Amino acid sequence: MELYVAALGFGLVSASVIAIAAVGFTMQFGITNMINLAYGEVMIVCAYAAFYVNRAGVTIWIAMIAGALAGAALSFLLNRFLYAPFQRKGTNLIGMVIVSLAASLMIANVLLPIVGYYTSSYVVDPGPLLRSHGLVLTTAQIAIIVVAVILMLAIHGLLRYTRLGKAMRATAANPTLARNCGIPTQRVIDMVWLITGALCGVAGVVAGLDSENFSVASGAGYLITIVAAAVLGGAGQPYGAMIGALIIGLVTELSAAIWSPEYKEVVAFGVLVLVMVLRPQGLLARRGAMAAAG
Prior knowledge:
Strand content: under 5%
Order of helices and strands: HHHHEEHHHHHHH
Shape: globular
Number of helices: 11
Mean pLDDT: 88
Helix content: over 70%
Largest sheet: 2 strands, antiparallel
Structural class: mainly alpha
Number of strands: 2
Radius of gyration: 18 Å
Strand order of the largest sheet: 1-2
């Protein structure tokens, strides 16, 4: 029983990492209609950006800001100079998926000669162990959960209580109508890529912290769990992605406790397949993309 309680604690940490990434991923799709399969590789680029700042002697919690900035900049540039031109030419959704997959391969192959094949890890003090009713977590793991909670509350506040959030929801529901109503949809989309890119960057750093090491090859594994959480919650639904992340995080960690940690990605992929077969619309049915967020 203690093993399962401990797995529950690790599941909350994993869910926090997945939630940060999945919310950014699903917001990109919900507002821009873009399934960005380069998301995992952007996470890795950001993880390495924070790694080099951390290696220079900066604490990882400050270096995380460098990861967020790298994610915002790279995501914005990817959209402005690669995705947007294809979308303006009328490329369909499947075509854009292929474009994003090509972008993922290009990023990985550019990054590989720079950082090498081997794994990297951050210099971080995990802090003392905190024990409570069978849960055993380090201070660093608690910090990851806190970061996730703060970011989820910030996204909630952005979508519900700001003019930009209302413009995002309007653009997601009907971009043509939003444009006709005077909403600068292109500016909104640019902000979406900056915000979701920053989430992607933070997710890359906390994923590297949670797994203790990472490499260029880690991006594909991250992407599986992110897509699983986003699809489980409902495509284009930020709140659904949070719920999906919680479920995926707990299920994968419990599977690691029952069988082996090597099965975590297999279980995440299995959940994705089951959802696609049994409830393809996800737990929260998509109602005009993110319009339901209001």
